[in-house]
Specification:
This protein has eleven helices and eleven strands. It is of the alpha/beta class and 331 residues long. Helix 6 links the parallel strand 6 and strand 7. Helix 4 (102-109) runs parallel beside helix 11. The radius of gyration is 24 Å and the shape is globular.
Length: 331
């Protein structure tokens, strides 16, 4: 009898302890973030387009959450260093992650990826899209897209196309462009699109596909030629520049999209708070103006959701995987 009572008392203690843990966990989630700073990891160096977006949304997100959101840059290996770091982080909501379309291309680019984009993260929502432009040196012979297409098909690998290195968005845009035209140009890698654009303006290379954040100014200054945008619609900043779709490359679209993630198993209540804070940041008038001034497009609010980001990531993996494997891009 004493043994039975002892066992029952033990069970009661276990149940009581479990209930206390569950209660404390629920309280912690309800009080989150409780003034504790949140780290917003960016997989690239400070000053780039992704870092710019992160710093624009960090302050209003923190204000909405009642804490400080601190941007931390963790560059390396095309974003895979930061992605692996976030995938291993404690799933308590104090580590969040802003990454661009590299989240979708990493599996095809790297044989031994230390994380799975479709398994190791929770999805908070899409954030913004950065359009791209197809550019050429000022004295490149073709004056419009039809002339460009004919010139490329006639000259093939004599035409040079700059990019920011293996796996960079500029390279992927260029490879998709070549694939759609059925040609193989001479691809010239640089350590970033900054030096690539400098050489394009200097006439050392022929073509470059680059983001609007650093190219619209040189286009307006007439320092380069522009053949089209990589967006479905014309850009309000360049209304006279046609889209590549309008020029005959039907369905051609490359936008440097960004998404917000957390490590796997962050509680749903915290995910919901982060999503609400992200939407609040994207609806902030100052953020909207500053993004528009940088030619960065906020996605529609229905895409600022877990399902919106997950669906887009799936689609982008299916889109870029075959392009990358066909081009045999090295690690």
């Amino acid at each position: 009898m004493k043994l039975k009572k002892t066992v029952l008392a033990g069970f009661a203690a276990i149940i009581s302890a479990s209930a206390l843990i569950a209660s404390n966990t629920a309280t912690a989630q309800a009080n989150w973030p409780n003034n504790k700073p949140i780290s917003l990891i960016v997989p690239f160096a400070a000053g780039g387009p992704t870092d710019t977006v992160a710093r624009l949304i960090a302050i209003p997100m923190g204000k909405s959450l009642g804490t400080t959101v601190v941007v931390e840059n963790a560059p390396g290996a095309g974003g895979t260093v930061a992605s692996a770091k976030v995938a291993r982080a404690t799933p308590d909501g104090y580590t969040i992650y802003l990454h661009h379309m590299g989240m979708a291309t990493a599996q095809a680019l790297y044989d031994k990826l230390p994380y799975d984009p479709l398994v190791d993260f929770e999805y908070i929502g899409q954030v913004v899209d950065v359009p791209m432009l197809m550019l050429a040196r000022k004295n490149f012979p073709p004056n419009n897209f039809k002339e460009l297409e004919a010139y490329i098909k006639a000259n093939g690998n004599k035409v040079t196309m700059a990019n920011a290195g293996p796996g960079a968005v500029s390279q992927l845009c260029g490879l998709l462009f070549q694939s759609r035209l059925g040609v193989r140009l001479t691809n010239v890698p640089y350590k970033g699109t900054g030096p690539a654009l400098t050489d394009l303006m200097g006439g050392q290379v022929d073509l470059l596909c680059d983001q609007t954040t650093q190219t619209i100014g040189v286009v307006k200054d007439n320092r380069v030629k522009v053949y089209g945008t990589t967006t479905p619609k014309r850009l309000s900043a360049l209304p006279n520049v046609p889209t590549l779709d309008q020029e005959g490359l039907k369905g051609f679209e490359v936008k440097v999209w960004h998404g917000l993630y957390t490590p796997k198993n962050v509680p749903q209540a915290i995910q919901a708070k982060l999503n609400t804070a992200l939407k609040a940041a994207l609806n902030d008038p100052d953020v909207k103006k500053r993004l528009a001034d940088s030619n960065i497009d906020i996605v529609s609010m229905d895409k600022v959701s877990a399902n919106g980001l997950k669906t887009h990531l799936d689609n982008e993996i299916n889109k870029w995987g075959p392009v990358i494997r066909k081009a045999n891009i090295p690690d």
